[in-house]
Amino acid sequence: MAAFEPDTSTQISTRADARARGVGFTEALRRAFTNWSIHRRASRSEFWWYVLAWVGSSWLLGPISRATHTRLVEQICLLVEITLWLICLKVAACRFHDIGRSAWWLVLQVILGLVGSAMFIFGAFLGVAYLLTSGANHGLVRAGVVGVLVGVVLLVPTLIWSLVWLVLPGNAAVNRWNGEAP
User: Fold this and answer.
1) How far is CA 182 from CA 36, 47, 119, 140, 154, in A?
2) Which of 65, 167, 170, 171 is most buried (CB neighbours < 10 A)?
3) Domain of 33?
4) In a domain? residue 102
């Protein structure tokens, strides 16, 4: 090794050690709320710690919103929930980058999930309408069953696909999203 070349062996081992450890709860939240770029990578621990915080805040905000019976508090809680969901999508996009996938795959999964949910809800409403008409319209029940089945066929595989990709270990190699792994 020449005298003018920096010693990178300690940097590489430090990065590998940090990657193996992942990030803690507070570090994951700090990254989610301070690093707004989606052109980066997020480790598994960073993503799942944020999801835990998001679910926990939902469990807290829901009862607060319902208990106050105040329109302003309900709207503030809704705004906070939407903001936290959008940040979750950002962290998920970064998680996809860590496994070497484009965030456009996440967009596709969200669209399939929304369409599947809409079909499921539409089918359920048609089933309720059939029950309310005392079974007079058999076309409603057929359309309702089709809607529910299409919804399930779209939702279940999309959820499995998303979960599999989100739990995959990150790609340690350099990729097109900010080079080195977190």
Assistant:
1) 15, 12, 38, 52, 33
2) 170
3) 9-167
4) yes
Tens digit of each residue's pLDDT (9 = 90 or more) over 109-137: 999 999 999 999 998 988 888 778 776 67
Asked whether residue 11 carries a pLDDT value surpassing 50, the answer given is no
Sign of the CA dihedral running 126, 127, 128, 131: positive
Does residue 116 or residue 6 have the better pLDDT?
Answer: 116
Q: Measure Cα distances from 72 to 54, 68, 85, 172 in Å.
A: 21, 9, 20, 46
Q: What residues contact residue 82 under an 8 Å CB cut-off, 6+ apart? A: none
Mean pLDDT to the nearest integer, 99-106: 92
| pLDDT classification of 163: cutoffs 50, 70, 90 | very high
Look up residue 93 and give its amino acid: A
Of 88, 92, 54, the residue nearest 168 (C-alpha): 92
Q: Could you tell me the pTM of the whole model?
A: 0.77
Question: In the predicted model, is pLDDT for residue 21 greater than 60?
Answer: no
Evaluate whether residue 100 is within a structural domain: yes
Query: How many C-alpha atoms does 92 have within 13 Å on its Cβ side?
Result: 20
Classify residue 177: in a domain, yes or no.
no
Q: Are 103 and 97 in contact (CB under 8 A)?
A: yes
Give the pair of three-digit tokens for residue 2. 């020449």
Contacts of 25 (CB under 8 A, 6+ apart): 49, 52, 53
